[in-house]
Amino acid sequence: MGVEMRGDLAGKLLLGAGMALLPWLAMLWITVPDSYPAQHWRAAWVGFDMLEIAGLLTSAVLVRRSDHRAPLASIATAVLLLVDAWFDVMTAGRDVIFSLALACMLELPLAALCAAVALRPAVVVSARTATAQRAAVHV
Length: 139
Prior knowledge:
Layout: H1 3-31, H2 41-64, H3 70-90, H4 96-119, H5 127-137
């Protein structure tokens, strides 16, 4: 199966999955209660923030090394930060002003920085990549 054919198939599967989830979204809107006591609430939030920290540190290391994987880590971290901001604000209750401030001053700007890193053109090529490219040309 060629790359173009696989890309077309993947696109069709993703489109189908997105469309199939629309009725599920309506069902959730109708059936999910506005509030629900959660188990392991602290572990969930601390664990999520640990993922953000890991993403930020990984992105920093990869960007500093001009590693070609930096955009992948950065976009994943941007998504984590956006999700964190969303859930912080939506579950804040009386602390919504603090959550909005945190989202606007920290999480959203960091997500934008991560997205900018992920979407920028690869201008700087790492020394390792340049060496490998030169070696490949001479083979």
